[in-house]
Amino acid sequence: MDAVTAVAVAFWTMLPAYVPNNAAVLAGGGRPIDGGRTWRDGKRLLGDGKTWRGTLVGTLAGAALAAALNVARPALADATGVALPAFPPVVALALPFGAMLGDILASFVKRRSGRERGAAFPLLDQLDFVVVALVLAALVAPAWFRATFTLPVVLVVLVLTPVLHVLTNAGAYLLGLKDEPW
Ligand code: CTP
Ligand code: MG
């Protein structure tokens, strides 16, 4: 697989995992998942930045995007000559839900390390969602995962994701949608 193909496949396949966090920023609010509860250390379990609405809307937005990509795929594959993978229904849910779950787990880790809501945690912030999205996809669709995430594609995902994450969050901050640029 050449480099351009690896980048195209990595970006395409991870789109349903990239969108949920941004959708959650737009849709978030309302009741926090932890209901205001604290952990043994007296600090919040997750914090006010992880809400039911953000998680649900984020997951649905990613799943809807995967469905739309499935529809657009034949024409795009024809036009570009790149064999872009389709998203089986379980994967269309696992990628966005895994992304949201990774972000939630990261908030748990951040709170335990004494970081307040919104504090930066370099690398965890940029890779939490991608790692859990990949693990969940591998669990629900092992054969699809092996066929899609070849070593070059995984490497591109691990390099490309932090770059895109930094750029989109900086953009959301400049647009006034997000309180911090990370
Ligand atoms: N959001 C949400 N539900 C989620 C994830 C995000 O409602 N599951 C919304 C919240 O409004 C949140 C915003 O998106 O404030 C930005 O997300 P993020 O940067 O992940 O949260 P932070 O507020 O920075 O909190 P944390 O320190 O826990 O990451
Ligand atoms: Mg944050």
Count all strands and give the number.
Answer: 0
Order of helices and strands: HHHHHH
Mean pLDDT: 96
Beta-strand percentage? under 5%
Biggest sheet architecture? none
Mass-distribution shape: elongated
Unreliable sequence segments: none
Structural category is mainly alpha
**Tally of helical segments:** 6
As a whole number of angstroms, the C-alpha radius of gyration is 17 Å
The kinds of small molecule bound in this structure are: cytidine-5'-triphosphate, magnesium ion
| Percentage of residues in helical conformation | 55-70%
Draw up the topology in text:
Blueprint: H1 3-27, H2 52-80, H3 89-112, H4 124-140, H5 142-148, H6 151-174
Bound molecules: cytidine-5'-triphosphate and magnesium ion.
Magnesium ion (MG) binds at residues 118, 180.
Folded structure, characterized:
With 182 residues, the protein is an all-alpha fold. Helix content is 69%, strand content 0%. The protein has helices at residues 3-27, 52-80, 89-112, 124-140, 142-148, 151-174. Helix 2 (52-80) crosses helix 3. It starts with a helix and ends in an 8-residue tail after the last helix. Bound molecules: cytidine-5'-triphosphate and magnesium ion.
Overview features:
binds magnesium ion, mainly alpha, 182 residues, single chain, elongated, binds cytidine-5'-triphosphate
Brief overview:
The chain has 182 residues and is mainly alpha-helical. It contains 6 helices and no strands. The chain has helices at 3-27, 52-80, 89-112, 124-140, 142-148, 151-174.
